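Appendix B, Record 12. Input sequence as logged:
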Amino acid sequence: MAARKSKRKPSQRSARGSLKSKSGRPHRVGPAFERLVALMSRLRSRGGCPWDREQTHATLRTYLIEEAYEVLDALESRDDAKFAEELGDLLLQVLFHAQIAQEEGRFSIADVIREIYQKMIRRHPHVFGKKRAKDAAAVLRNWEIIKAQERLAKKEEAQETEEVKEGAETSSPFSASSTSQGSMLDGIPSTLPALLEGYQLTRRAARIGFDWDNVDGIFEKLNEETRELRAALAAPQKDPRRIESELGDVLFVVINLARFLNVDPEIAAKNASAKFSRRFREMERAAREQRTTLANIPRAQMESLWEQSKRNELPATTENQEFLAQRRRRTSAIPRA
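Logged structural output:
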């Protein structure tokens, strides 16, 4: 059963939670990867695991999402052994889907690797070609332009293939393939969580210059959208759809603010949720010490316990602050495929 977690023995992890080769030399990736591919094939074979054999692309969707979030959780833990394990679980999901596709005669893991290899070559002309990029911002602008060109080429190729299937001799100069222009926003999945979708949309737009000059402009926009939300709430006849729309505008500006500040809004929201959970549990603990529960405490006393829980939190160490700053810099510079 490929999705099942295995218990890790304490001896496998050093005191600092890191994983290292016993010889001190890096492992050869090729043979190890081939063994993992063979293992996945064995699990799906006639004499393999009944659970693995029953899985489809659709049934594995939940596991793919879960494993991605567990990788993020392991990254936050700063435990190298846990991080390596969770990355392996995520890699296994890629192999699982590729194995199913291979069995159906569609593509294999070799096709997956070839596609991403060729894509990285195309997307880095400043490394593998003659184009120059003076800084990371130029790299990201070129990246989005190349992506748009690739999407348009694929669209035109699909249109030509469809015309051939229908028996068309030549396409009209005014056909959809020749007049349609791809959008810079094409390719962003609508299935993304709302925060991440907004982040991706605004980041793509910003890379070609559609952005505020400074953060003050975003705060002005936030004030504008807040006023419009207040107006919707103050209307004699409240329109739920208008309120929802105005609140959505406020959230979208906040997403833009996060992007402008090089903060991932999804991670920021997760951290805020974790902070709230931590402080609320501390309030519950304090209430139990008083031989009562939060539900039986007046609101004013709840506020007092909340402030107390905030004061009881240890300030972030310099090491943690540096770690978070480095992570923000890395995530803001990573292009999205």
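Confidence is low (pLDDT under 50) at residues 6-16, 169-179.
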